[in-house]
């Protein structure tokens, strides 16, 4: 079995006239947690959509387990997506179904299993995220962190090969954050799946990632394990990882200086 | 102009997708999904349709009587009310009310599902959102609007609407009211054509509202715009196609 589950080569992608990616190589290794880090608006979510085939690259290839995602027919793409689980930023639970039915949903659609088997699997998955007793609640009754845990249970219901997390830590309190970090690690290791985490919460992600890529301005700026990144000589990487307000990325929006503006207003 | 054309093109492609999914999806459609939608689309529009029907019938009787009585022809009130409701006012007003009540709600619901990533979520679970979300709603609209039109017309013509004002208050003979109406309103020519109209309107409202919701920009602003456009475009569609249908079905041009 090849080492990579997902291989991205020379990826180019434009949205309108805006360049999102210009030549990106990314390897996602089987059984590992790979983190994609980068500032807001660098198209990290776009990368996940390219892997799931919701978008097609302008140039270059995205391969999932040896198959070129962009070349797949719709039916083949749907087969591939059964092997993918994705955790959306908002959880994306179906609001008209209870927690139990949300987790059961992909099973009912695809597995052809009996109600009893589905009941067992759903309880299993909800137990894994600690929400077995919340199974009768509706999504509107859940906190943000709980909704994400339910979404995680749903994402792993079909036993996927790859789970993708889109900004899993955004807007979480420290406890939910800790729970999610623990869950991502344990789900990855116990179920033997592969994980991709897209985020800008540097410390949380680096604490669990086996390998990380930092993406900015359409390129991979730096990649390696957590220590390699922390030891990076690049000022930009240091500013990003340590969250400094000023550095290569200036605090001020580019333009004329304050002095010039005052002069222009006739004040100096 | 170009963006307007591209919208038009995209909405036709969307319609083809919807219709293509209609037959295979409805053969394995879960009954619960459909009844749920008929409940929310149809049943929840019932009150506004019933109340509006009563008032429209009442006002029609009042105005019709005032005109007819000057010719001594007030006994023909049933004809005036029956024909205008069955041919025009019933389908058109029900369509407009339905677009405002149910069409806007559909656009907002689907638009919010887009904004909260539920539609992406379905796609990623290898579930076709057109089949799971749109087809049941479209069928529900196609079933509900003609039925609501029938209810509206009955309420307008019947004992609580025009009959109450014309017969019980203004003194038109009840027998004359019904028998003249029965003699003048033809089933094939009038009632069936009204049904055809309401089916066309249902098609338009379903198409417009689902399209607007499905392609809404995923922001609160975008969802707001989708609902507004649904009401505006559906209303224009109904009024415009009504003129064409009247010309085609009843002739006279």
The percent of residues in helical segments of chain B reads: over 70%
Number of helices of chain B: 10
Number of strands of chain A: 10
Query: Unreliable runs of chain B, pLDDT <50, ≥5 residues?
Result: none
Instruction: Note the beta-strand portion of chain A.
Output: 15-25%
Class of secondary structure makeup of chain A: alpha/beta
The rounded Rg of chain A comes to 21 Å
What is the approximate shape of chain B?
Answer: elongated
**Quaternary:** heterodimer
H-E order of chain A: EEEHEEHEHHHEHEHEEHHH
Characterise this structure.
- The complex is a heterodimer of chains A (268) and B (253).
- In chain A, a hairpin with a 2-residue loop joins strand 1 (4-15) and strand 2.
- With 268 residues, chain A is of the alpha/beta class.
- Chain A has helices spanning 44-51, 74-81, 99-110, 115-128, 144-155, 174-190, 202-208, 226-230, 235-242, 258-264; strands at 4-15, 18-29, 33-37, 59-64, 67-68, 84-87, 162-166, 194-199, 211-216, 219-224.
- In chain A, helix 4 crosses helix 5 and helix 5 (144-155) runs parallel beside helix 6.
- The radius of gyration of chain A is 21 Å and the shape is globular.
- A six-stranded mixed sheet of chain A has the order 6-7-8-3-9-10, sandwiched between helices. In chain A, strands 2-1-4-5 form a four-stranded antiparallel sheet, covered by helices on one side.
- The two termini of chain B are 32 Å apart.
- The relative contact order of chain B is 0.17.
- Chain B has 253 residues and is mainly α.
- Chain A binds chain B through residues 52, 54, 78-79, 81-82, 84, 86, 88-90, 92-96, 105-106, 109-110, 154, and chain B through 36, 113, 116-118, 120-128.
């Amino acid at each position: 079995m090849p080492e990579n589950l997902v291989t991205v080569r020379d990826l180019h992608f434009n949205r309108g006239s805006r360049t999102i990616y210009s030549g990106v190589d990314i390897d996602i290794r089987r059984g590992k947690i790979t983190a994609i880090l980068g500032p807001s608006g660098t198209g990290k979510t776009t990368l996940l959509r390219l892997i799931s085939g919701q978008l097609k690259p302008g140039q270059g290839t995205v391969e999932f387990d040896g198959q070129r995602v962009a070349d797949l027919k719709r039916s083949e793409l749907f087969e591939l997506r059964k092997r993918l689980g994705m955790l959306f930023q908002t959880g994306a639970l179906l609001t008209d179904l209870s927690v139990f039915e949300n987790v059961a949903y992909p099973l009912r659609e695809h597995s052809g299993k009996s109600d009893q088997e589905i009941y067992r699997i759903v309880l299993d998955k909800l137990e894994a995220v600690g929400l077995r007793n919340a199974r009768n609640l509706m999504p509107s009754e859940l906190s943000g962190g709980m909704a994400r845990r339910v979404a995680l249970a749903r994402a792993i219901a079909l036993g996927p090969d790859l789970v993708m997390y889109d900004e899993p830590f955004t807007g979480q309190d420290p406890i939910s954050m800790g729970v999610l970090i623990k869950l991502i690690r344990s789900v990855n290791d116990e179920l033997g799946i592969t994980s991709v985490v897209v985020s800008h919460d540097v410390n949380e992600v680096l604490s669990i990632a086996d390998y990380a890529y930092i993406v900015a301005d359409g390129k991979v700026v730096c990649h390696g394990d957590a220590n390699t990144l922390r030891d990076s000589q690049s000022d930009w990487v240091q500013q990003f990882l340590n969250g400094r307000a000023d550095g290569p990325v200036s605090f001020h929006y580019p333009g004329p200086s304050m002095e010039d503006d005052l002069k222009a207003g006739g004040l100096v | 102009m170009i963006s307007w054309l591209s919208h038009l093109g995209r909405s036709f492609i969307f319609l083809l997708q919807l219709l293509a999914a209609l037959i295979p999806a409805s053969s394995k459609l879960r009954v619960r999904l459909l009844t749920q939608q008929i409940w929310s689309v149809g049943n929840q529009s019932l009150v506004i349709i019933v109340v509006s029907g009563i008032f429209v019938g009442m006002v029609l009787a009042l105005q019709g009587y005032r005109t007819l009585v000057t010719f001594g022809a007030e006994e023909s009130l049933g004809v005036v009310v029956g024909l205008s409701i069955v041919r025009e006012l019933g389908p058109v007003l029900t369509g407009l009310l339905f677009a405002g009540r149910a069409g806007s709600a559909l656009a907002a619901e689907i638009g919010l599902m887009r904004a909260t990533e539920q539609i992406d979520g379905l796609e990623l679970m290898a579930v076709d959102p057109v089949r799971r979300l749109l087809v049941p709603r479209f069928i529900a609209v196609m079933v509900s609007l003609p039925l609501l039109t029938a209810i509206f017309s009955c309420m307008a013509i019947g004992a609580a609407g025009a009959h109450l004002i014309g017969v019980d208050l203004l003194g038109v003979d009840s027998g004359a009211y019904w028998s003249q109406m029965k003699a003048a309103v033809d089933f094939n020519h009038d009632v069936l054509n009204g049904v055809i109209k309401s089916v066309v309107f249902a098609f338009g409202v379903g198409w417009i509202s689902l399209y607007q919701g499905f392609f809404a920009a995923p922001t609160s602003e975008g969802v707001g715009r989708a609902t507004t456009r649904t009401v505006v475009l559906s209303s224009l569609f109904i009024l415009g196609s009504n003129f064409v249908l009247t010309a085609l079905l009843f002739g006279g041009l």
